[in-house]
């Protein structure tokens, strides 16, 4: 009996230590003696007043400007592909009408796509290399449809504090348009500089052959039901076996993934590419979420 009691109390003490005592100690004891004691603040009100805080750029981020929006109910279905990193396939994330409206809104705004360098940094020189990325991109005006999709993307992610939906861009791929393997994150979050925490890759127009979104480091799910959304190698005309997971472009559907581990470092498994379009035209929508905590401050 005494053994039993001490064992069972140990059983309770361990989680008590891990969940209560250790975090309390960490709050009380500064982890970095050089900088004293810090508090991490998720309160959005503080973003507006502190002049030590980062200036959020409305040209880059879809900030709340008080414009009222009325949105249709969500009407999508989700399938988890991977937990670590989190990768979720979303059927019907956009309705056909929404996808068409975004394609129409994009048409007057196309410019050649540049390679991604942290868009929040003040980097004004576009880096264009058509061997690595060949497509056109268009900044989408914040119409009611766009604002509803912003709201949907925030809701999907649990209205995470300090998460900002970047201004949305449509990407148009003609025949031979592609984007070689790359990451969407830059690795700046660990220094509290902010980074792209997640990506939604939405297909707005998929009247094409080829043009799949490939993740060579993700493991292909085994169930054949996935073949509706990913290439299974037995598709007509496709002979080569491709590594990892290749999502087929399907209008209105989306792939969501988290780019960052909880400690702010990037997931290597999010390495991905847009395979070349072989026939027709593909238009994609990138919804990137930027995570930007207010600067850590002295108490
Ligand atoms: C961005 O850089 C340009 C040129 O280097 C400079 O004129 C401008 O003031 C900078 N903007 C910000 C917000 O730092
Ligand atoms: C794609 O096609 C459109 C329309 O034909 C054209 O204006 C655009 O320059 C093309 N873009 C690329 C990258 O080839």
UniProtKB/TrEMBL annotation:
Cofactors needed by this protein, per the record, are: L-ascorbate
Give the record's keywords alphabetically. Dioxygenase, Iron, Metal-binding, Oxidoreductase
Q: Which residues form the Prolyl 4-hydroxylase alpha subunit domain?
A: 85-290
Q: Name a Pfam family for this protein.
A: 2OG-FeII_Oxy_3
- Protein name in UniProt: Prolyl 4-hydroxylase alpha subunit domain-containing protein
Q: Which GO terms describe its cellular component?
A: endoplasmic reticulum
Picking any one GO molecular function of the record gives:
L-ascorbic acid binding
Q: Which domain of life is it from?
A: Eukaryota
Cited SMART domains: P4Hc (SM00702)
């Amino acid at each position: 009996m005494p053994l039993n009691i001490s064992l069972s109390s140990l059983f309770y003490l361990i989680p008590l230590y891990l969940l209560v005592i250790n975090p309390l100690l960490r709050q009380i004891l500064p982890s970095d003696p050089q900088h004293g004691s810090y508090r991490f603040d998720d309160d959005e009100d503080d973003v507006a007043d502190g002049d030590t805080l980062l200036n959020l750029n409305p040209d880059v981020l879809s900030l709340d400007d008080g414009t009222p929006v009325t949105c249709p109910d969500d009407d999508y279905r989700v399938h988890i592909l991977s937990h670590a990193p989190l990768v979720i396939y979303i059927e019907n994330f956009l309705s056909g009408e929404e996808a068409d409206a975004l394609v129409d809104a994009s048409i007057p705004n196309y410019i050649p796509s540049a390679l991604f360098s942290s868009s929040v940094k003040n980097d004004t020189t576009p880096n264009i290399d058509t061997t690595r990325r060949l497509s056109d991109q268009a900044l989408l005006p914040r119409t009611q449809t766009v604002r509803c999709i912003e709201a949907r993307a925030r809701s999907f992610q649990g209205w995470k504090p300090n998460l900002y939906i970047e201004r949305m861009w449509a990407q148009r791929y003609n025949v031979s348009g592609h984007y070689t393997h790359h990451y969407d994150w830059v690795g700046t979050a660990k220094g509290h500089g902010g980074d792209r925490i997640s990506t939604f890759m939405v297909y707005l127009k998929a009247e094409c052959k080829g043009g799949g979104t490939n993740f060579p480091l993700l493991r292909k799910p085994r169930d054949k039901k996935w073949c509706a959304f990913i290439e299974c190698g037995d598709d007509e005309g496709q002979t080569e076996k491709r590594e990892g997971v290749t999502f087929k472009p399907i209008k209105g559907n989306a792939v969501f993934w988290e780019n960052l581990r909880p400690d702010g470092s990037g997931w290597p498994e999010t390495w991905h590419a847009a395979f070349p379009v072989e026939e027709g035209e593909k238009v994609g929508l990138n919804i990137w979420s930027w995570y930007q905590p207010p600067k850590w401050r002295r108490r």
